[in-house]
Specification:
The chain has 15 helices and 10 strands. The protein is α/β, with parallel strands linked by helices. The protein folds into 2 domains: about 5-290, Spore Coat Polysaccharide Biosynthesis Protein SpsA, Chain A, CATH 3.90.550; about 295-385, no CATH class. The strands form 2 sheets. Strands 3-2-1-4-7-6-8-5 form an 8-stranded mixed beta sheet, sandwiched between helices.
């Protein structure tokens, strides 16, 4: 642990959110962070976590009940009820191996209030806990308040981190639960899951190094890595995507296919994108079929990524000549987004091909890939249907 860096990070955070801490005598191996707003079924999640804690492991769970100046009366009231019930739950279930800490934050500033800030509050408290207990290998587990987990959840995550002290993040598998006999919702969520896996596989296929899926309830991060990238952002949606892109750039990533998270499939308008809005969009399609990016668009981008090593040490004229072999849609996108300037920056600041490759993908990152895909659909590449 670089205590100086950790202390500097903690000093930069808002002290308003760190008034309640985990008990000093409880030295957690892992800390689970759950942002929670208007979640009446939270205790399904808490019971699932408790059942997954193996012997001889100490797991703390921080539940951040949060609301803002514009939250509904119903949501605020549900938070208060759930927080009170969690205090009672903790009084019964806290032990030498588990500690549940409910925190209630109301009237959070309108500009930043939301799932990002709530997740950040909990994760920063986890860092504070590991700093206080001098646990340099502490792990922060990100989860949501509508999830259950597989029985091996904690055991396998912890073992993976302990077996590799360079590991920065694990990405977990997922399968949405569907309550009742809702066939339309079932079909929609399986399409959405299919899309997430399709997108991940296509990113890997084209040679993008940070192809892993980015789901807020399905990753764990080493506290030191969390500090190194400046912590969680306060975005009101997509905070998981933004944060994980920073973490992925550190390297040392592990996909944990046998560790499962089971979020609840449901509609939601709390964030502008994610599972809830995606399900609404699918069901609003006339044929109930999700439309996704064409594989031909990925194929065209793959050609660029395969050329990247040739750009090392080349001037703009030479790079521009190489680009003429690419699909016209890719050429148009690169011209509109000053690609030659980016390549010049990569060459100017890279003494080796390895350094050039890393810097190349700092410019052509996941954000730019999505920008490219949105630019070339539906013309010249038509959207396609994805089957569950």
């Amino acid at each position: 642990m670089n205590r100086k860096n950790w202390q500097a990070y903690l000093d930069r955070q808002n002290p308003t959110y760190s008034t309640l801490l985990l008990p000093e005598h409880f030295k957690a191996d892992l800390v689970v962070v759950i942002p929670c707003y208007n979640e009446p079924d939270l205790f399904t999640t808490l019971h699932s976590l408790e059942e997954a804690i193996p012997p001889n492991m100490r797991v703390a769970t921080i539940i951040v009940f949060n609301s803002s100046e514009r939250s509904t009366r119903e949501g605020i009231q549900q938070n208060r009820i759930s927080c009170k019930q969690t205090v009672e739950f903790a009084a019964i279930h806290n032990s030498d191996s588990s500690c549940f800490l409910p925190l209630l934050f109301e009237d959070l500033p309108r500009k930043h209030a939301g799932v990002g800030l709530a997740r950040k509050i909990g994760m920063d408290l986890a860092v504070q806990h590991f700093f206080s207990t001098e646990n340099e290998r502490g792990v922060i587990v990100s989860l949501d308040a509508d999830c259950t987990v597989s029985a091996n959840f904690f055991a396998d995550i912890y073992k993976t981190f302990m077996c590799n002290d360079k590991l920065n993040v694990t990405v977990h598998n997922f399968y949405h639960r569907v309550e009742g006999e809702n066939l339309s919702l079932e079909m929609a969520v399986r399409q959405y899951e299919g899309y997430i896996r399709y997108f991940r596989d296509k990113l890997q296929y084209i040679g993008f190094p940070y192809y892993y899926h980015t789901i807020g309830s399905a990753f764990a991060v080493k506290a030191d890595a969390y500090v190194r990238v400046g912590g969680m952002g306060r975005q009101q949606g997509g905070e998981d995507f933004y944060f994980l892109q920073k973490i992925f750039a550190l390297g040392e990533i592990r996909e944990h296919d046998n560790v499962w998270v089971y979020p609840l499939a449901r509609f939601s308008d709390r964030v502008p994108f994610g599972t809830g809005p995606a399900l609404e969009k699918i069901l609003n399609e006339p044929d109930g079929q999700m439309k996704v990016y064409s594989p031909d668009a990925f194929e065209a981008l793959k050609q660029l990524f395969e050329l990247k090593d040739i750009f090392f040490g080349k001037n703009e004229v030479e790079v521009e000549q190489e680009l003429l072999t690419l699909h016209p849609a890719v050429q148009m996108f690169l011209n509109e987004n000053e690609f030659l300037i980016d390549v010049t920056d990569c060459n100017t600041n890279s003494a080796s091909l390895t350094a050039f490759q890393k810097r190349f993908f700092q410019h052509f990152n996941a954000f730019k890939i999505i920008k490219y895909l949105n630019c070339v659909h539906p013309v010249p590449f038509p959207l396609i249907e994805i089957k569950p």
